[in-house]
Amino acid sequence: MNFLDGSLHPENQQKLVITVAPYAPEWMPSDFPEDIPVTMAEQVQMAVDCYNAGATVLHLHVRELDGKGSKRLSKFNELIAGVREAVPDMIIQVGGSISFAPEGDSDVAKWLSDDTRHMLAQLSPAPDQVTIAINSNQMNIVEQMCEADLAGTSIATPEIYRAYREMTIPAGPEWVEEHIKRLSASGIQTQFQLGNIPSFETVERMMRRGVCNVPLVLTWVAIGGGSDAPNLYNLANFVRACPDGAVLTLETAMLNVLPLNVMAIAMGMHVRCGTEDNLWTQGRDRKMSNVEQIEQLVRISREMGREVANGKEAREIYKIGTFYQDADQTLAENGFAPNRKPGQKGFTQFG
């Protein structure tokens, strides 16, 4: 991404798109009963409340009535339909990591089979996006968490802590390419969840081979434990790698969320918040609701002179419904250099 003179001026930046992740599959309702919805009506109302507060992208997971994360696609269909009716302009982003939600006392962090995960392309009504991780990798979500982050929560129990500490992402090339193909055929946008430069480079190579003809709408997932740590140097390195056509959101965990989001707001990128990422105020004096987290980012963004996107504007920024014909168009639209032609010497550029 280029930062020319004036890039930090709000009049030259896109309006801010706020993603909220309010369903928090790694936590149990007892961890924050005031703000973790359980019934279907509560889950739909949470989407409404978050949209009214200023969030235009809903990172969606589903709970069963016993409070555990649901793996039933029928429950996803029910929630998607309810949200679509209640807040039709909200972008619905289904979390492709649905299968790490707790399934039983002895199997806390197990992913479903590849074939079952492919069924996300068959959700009805179809969501706008499904998130996807690239390259099999460690996903130790607790590595950067401290005792104060987990105090009094279900993850503080030894067996659950160990399950999340040992979690890995199965995202090999054959499955990834097939999944993107199926999502695109269903009119669902692939939303890339990338924790490091190697994963980003894999996406670029797929686009150059013509097997990933989609907009580069991505999230930098800086949570450690197999992903980048949320520091300035890693952020700058990742941002520098992103082409000018990318739509980049920043994501991290716990007390890192607010400072990283302030950086994103200042630099013209987009933000993510919610109880899936963080439970606490910056002073850890109390837990902070989804709506409070959204309202805080809206207030900060407006103080900086950057307006917050409404649902229609967010859809345009996120390029919802856009797909490309081939590698050449994909590279050009996303801002990558073109593929090298046979016999071509030197650096490639669009003429």
Automatic annotation (TrEMBL):
<dbReference type="Pfam" id="PF05853">
    <property type="entry name" value="BKACE"/>
</dbReference>
<keyword id="KW-0479">Metal-binding</keyword>
<dbReference type="InterPro" id="IPR013785">
    <property type="entry name" value="Aldolase_TIM"/>
</dbReference>
<keyword id="KW-0862">Zinc</keyword>
<dbReference type="GO" id="GO:0043720">
    <property type="term" value="F:3-keto-5-aminohexanoate cleavage activity"/>
</dbReference>
<keyword id="KW-0808">Transferase</keyword>
<dbReference type="GO" id="GO:0046872">
    <property type="term" value="F:metal ion binding"/>
</dbReference>
<protein>
    <submittedName>
        <fullName>Transposase</fullName>
    </submittedName>
</protein>
<dbReference type="InterPro" id="IPR008567">
    <property type="entry name" value="BKACE"/>
</dbReference>
